[in-house]
Each structure stands twice: as structure tokens, then as C-alpha cells.
Amino acid sequence: MPGRGTIEVMANAWIEIDQRALRANAESLRSLLDPATQLLGVVKSNAYGHGLAVVVPLLDSLVDFFGVDDFEEAVAVRALSAKPVLILNPLAADAAEATVCRGFHQMVSSLEDIDTLAVAAEAVGTPAHVHLKVDTGMSRQGFPVGDFLVHLHEIVSREHIAIAGIATHFANADVPGDSSVAMQHEQFRRVLDQVHAMGLRGIRHAANSAATILEPDTHYDLVRCGIALYGIWPDQAVLQAAPRLAVRPRVSGISLEPVLQFRTRISLIKEVAQGEGVGYGLTKRFERSSRIALLPIGYGDGYSRTLSNISEVLIRGQRAPVVGRISMNLTTVDITDLPEVSVGDTVTLLGRSGKQEIAVEELAQRTGTIPYEIVTALPRHLPRVII
Hints:
Layout: E1 3-4, E2 13-17, H1 19-30, E3 38-42, H2 44-48, H3 52-59, E4 65-68, H4 71-78, E5 85-87, H5 96-101, E6 105-108, H6 111-124, E7 128-135, E8 143-144, H7 148-157, E9 161-167, H8 179-197, E10 203-205, H9 209-214, E11 222-225, H10 236-241, E12 260-265, E13 268-272, E14 277-278, E15 284-285, E16 290-295, E17 312-315, E18 318-321, E19 331-334, E20 346-353, E21 356-358, H11 360-367, H12 371-376, E22 384-386
Parallel strand pairs: 1-22, 2-22, 3-4, 3-11, 4-5, 5-6, 6-7, 7-8, 7-9, 9-10
Antiparallel strand pairs: 2-12, 12-20, 13-16, 14-15, 16-19, 17-18, 17-20, 20-21
């Protein structure tokens, strides 16, 4: 169970969730929106690794909708909140009746899914709430733009189907000024004109975190914010562009604060002689007599093996290099230049210690990936502690 207050956990490692930062991020994003525009909090992939069971109650009063990956996540959210839940990924056919029965909203990209939901809705005696996804140029999920009007007429003719929303997704919203965003947006506007001409009403939504920050014209009735809620910029280019947008309405003053910190404790300290190696493959040999600390965490706990010999951790507000290969549940760091460090000291793998910070962007750069992968790779077995 998530704890509160002082950090007292029995596990070898834990994740701290800063509820003040989470609230500040939600309020900062909300400040960009017109009062009538709803905020959907995306909590898929275990709330981007932050812990769905912890994050949903904290966000419940701050968002209007929750967005999840699949039916199982929708069920988990419903146990924590009465807010509407939108399943973003394709329909799982065997969960169709349960999806309709529980009142979940489902993103739909094909007539086959519409037919499945119509049958399920008839069986349970309640309408299926669908959000029609339009592929405006990402070539992933969605009805093709050119065929959408034909599909829409067919969908409207289906009984037991309630069109709750019309949506699209931008491929390059995190690249400021990218022409594809304007192209996709224009395609979406044409679709919305067709929908309006048919007299249909539904929640119009297109903006992800990056578009919410950079493209106010795409906000419509609802924005879908994921990564930004957790204090992580969708891309450094978005961070750099945001201050230049102060001339636009409601964009000045946007700030995001990291919500997550990843910590462990030193379990063992030992001396090693000059020339000795450490870890599998002895990939690190010491050029001097050294002092090393063993951390009871490894790639099985979400600390990537690709960080071997290239990363650093924070101990008592100072950096210490990772030495040797990271193994499944053990990591070794060099504390030769930190003589005051002792067994039991807290070690920060991701987050702040004193005036130093290991940012998620730093770990992503070191491993050649993106911040999204760093946080979503944090396993569910690690305790999440609310601070």
C-alpha cells in the first residue's frame, strides 16, 4: 500500500510521488485552457510508471476524464474514481460486454469494433459510448479521412451506439512549427465540419501534452495530457519553445515539476585494490585502490543495464559513478571520493538530492531512448510512496 509522510519502507528500493508537484502540473496545464475545455489525465502504463493506484486519487479532483490503455486499467481506475474513463487502445473483443456494461468510453478505429460493441450493447441493454478516431496522417489508429464520411453514415445507422466523441492524434506535435501538425489539424477540421453538418455532437479532442502547450487552436472540447502531468516535457524543444509563446493567450507561465523520484539504500561497502575488477565480465577495473558501495537494485527493478559504467547516482547530494555491469538486482557505485558515505545511506537514482539532480532526460540521453521509456519501465513491484 502507498505510504504517507516520512519515508519508511521495507523494500530495497522505492519511488516517491510528490503530490504537490502533481497538483501544480495539473493546475499549470489547466491554466492554458478555456474554462469549457476539459482536461483528460492519461494514466496508461501504470500512470507512466508513477503508480496508477497512487496517482488516480491524487488527480481525481483535478481532471475531468481519465485515459487508460485497456479494459483492465479502466477497471482499476473505476475502483478509485467515478470520473469518466476512456480506453485509448483498440477494443478487446472479449471485454466488449463488460466495457459497455461498466459505462467505459471506447476509442474506435474500425467498423468491426463498432459491430462488436453494438452486439454487446444490445446484449446488456445499454448504449456503447464510442469516440471515433480519425487518421489524419499518423497512419496508425483511426478511420481514414477519405472514407470517414461513408463510415460515419454507417455508424449512425447502428443501433445501441452513442457517438460520445470525435478524435485524432498528432504525429509531430512535440516538434515546434512542424508542418505536419497544421496539415493534420486542417484534415481534422474538415472532418468536424462533416460531423457538424450531420447534426452530430460529441466531445472533440486532438491535443496531447505537446499540442496542449504549443497549439491552443487544437484544444477543442478536451485535451489529453499524459507526460506533462508528471512534470516531464514532451521534448526539450517544447520546453525551449514554450517561453517564446508568451504572446499567445493562456500560454505564458507554463511550468512543469518532476513528480517522481527513484531511490534505494546502500547495502554494503567494501574496499577494492588497484587493478581489481567488478561485476559480470569485469568490465570495470580500478586504476587506484577504491571504495565501492553495493546497491540492492538492478535491471529487474527498472534500472537499465544500458546504464552500466556510464551513469551516476546521488548520495548525500553528491554524484557517484556507476561501475561495472548492472545486474538483475545489484548495482555497484564508486564512492572513493565520498569518504563520509556509510551503509544505509539513501541513494537517488532519479530525482534530487541536495542541490544535485539526476533528471529523467539525463538517463534517457545516456541510454539513447526517451523519457517516456525510462519512467514506464519502472516495475509495478516497487512501492510508491506519497510525499
